[in-house]
Amino acid sequence: xxxxxxxxxxxxxxxxxxxxxxxxxxxxxxxxxxxxxxxxxxxxxxxxxxxxxxxxxxxxxxxxxxxxxxxxxxxxxxxxxxxxxxxxxxxxxxxxxxxxxxxxxxxxxxxxxxxxxxxxxxxxxxxxxxxxxxxxxxxxxxxxxxxxxxxxxxxxxxxxxxxxxxxxxxxxxxxxxxxxxxxxxxxxxxxxxxxxxxxxxxxxxxxxxxxxxxxxxxxxxxxxxxxxxxxxxxxxxxxxxxxxxxxxxxxxxxxxxxxxxxxxxxxxxxxxxxxx
Length: 276
Known about the structure:
Elements: H1 8-18, H2 23-30, H3 34-42, H4 49-58, H5 63-72, H6 90-103, E1 108-111, E2 117-120, H7 125-128, H8 142-147, H9 159-176, H10 180-189, E3 210-213, E4 218-226, H11 234-238, E5 240-246, H12 249-258
Antiparallel strand pairs: 1-2, 1-5, 3-4, 4-5
Helix pairs in contact: 1-3, 2-3, 2-4, 9-10
């Protein structure tokens, strides 16, 4: 989805096709008539701002693109994009810090839509060990950190599996927004290595795990991604919290022992880790 060009009808039709919905499907979800959807898409009816947002909601259009739809229809944008460090985002930051600290000693990161690391917890030290300093400043990027030869890639035992995981996630993003920075990440770290060589998970596994060699021994991690429910701010909608968990008991022991004898670190905006 290129977005940002064409009439509001053209853009809505693109989103409808992307969601693989008929005009009747969209009409039923938006609780309007199929005829009205047709008139809007063909430009024979000028929708109100409320109608644009109703159709966008039914199509699950991201807030950033809802603003573009409103602009195409001749209306002002409705959704702000605030810096995470802005004063009115303090409650969000506090919630994120709580999540990150509660997850220690396991690694956790807060990322923006371009995979730039905004906040971390102390467990991320495991993912930073031995990484080239250039990949950590001015801001780490989880794709680069994982797949760059100067990052974790040489230490990841199942690098093909991990790369294919990033391939799937980046492809989904690019299907909705051909963002140049995400495109660059895909073209640099994924496209040259697409070979379909990733093996299927072992029969006894319930999730795919990343195997990572640490200075002590190999650990196995899987992750979950958490987002905010019903956000009304673009920044907030595009924030993701990735929480890493031990995939076996030995890894859990290694991560727990890494925290032994010291107070776990807090978190800082900008991907920094506060010392104990």
